[in-house]
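Page 47, continued from p. 46.
Same chain as before, 319 aa.
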Amino acid sequence: MRLRCAVLDDYQGVATEVADWAPLGGRVDVVSFREHIVGEDSLASALADFDIIVTLRERVPFPATLIARLPRLKLLIASGMRNSVIDYAAAEAHGVTVCGTGSSSTPPVELTWALLLGLARGIVEESGALRSGGPWQSTLGADLHGRRLGLLGLGKIGARVAAVGLAFGMRVSAWSPNLTAERAEEVGVELASNKEELLADSDFLSVHLALGDRSRGLLGAPELALMKPTAYLVNTSRAAIIDQDALLDALHTGRIAGAALDVYDTEPLPAGHPMRTAPNLLATPHLGYVSRANYSIYYGDAVENIEAYLAGSPVRRLP
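Result:
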């Protein structure tokens, strides 16, 4: 009997184009879902007849209650090698194998700089004005050279963001709970003595931390109040690291000059969400991982995972 594979959140409809699914031959029928499925009841109904599910990032939670309602599910593939919204114990209890895929840190680094530069030079405002017949020049760009770039987190992505900042001639500082002087020196940046110093000194602050108990809500109203009124905040990591209500207040009151976000507390962002209309905000729909090369890794590895599973030797198992 042919197996059925569901590919979730294939918004661009490219999952079967960016990777070669031919090795699965006539063994697996692949169905792509371009629209996000909201709610457990809708998910249980739409996915009840699938043996394999490929889920994109952490868009769709798989709690025990949903897994129990998917009687045919045998293989769940998550893009990347970390996923906080899958109940692994429930998957094991129901005989569901969970696998991950490789990924690249390059796309989020590049998007971070696209957002930071867009903020600094008013790209969206100036482009919109030019195309709509508005004023010729209305913003005054914020210079990067000689300014302070603060990084919350100096892992693989943070270090590459730092390298670009240094190339622009910025003074780069970093801080995280576990950051050592040796790591900062290795990357070529200054080690801030504490979080408060980093916030107060930064002209541009970029978040590059994994979400965990210590990083959740790390930036709240007291922390945002330490930032310069001329400073900009960029978050391409996880929304929950920043108190969203506090950030909205800082944007509406002009407490900071602006922010750029690629991540949100609810994704896709609901139509009436206040982030859609917040002032001084450059917002993108979680594009950090969305590039052709990265998708080729995700879906190419997904095909390999399915092949390995069918051969009885699953690879890249999670957690």
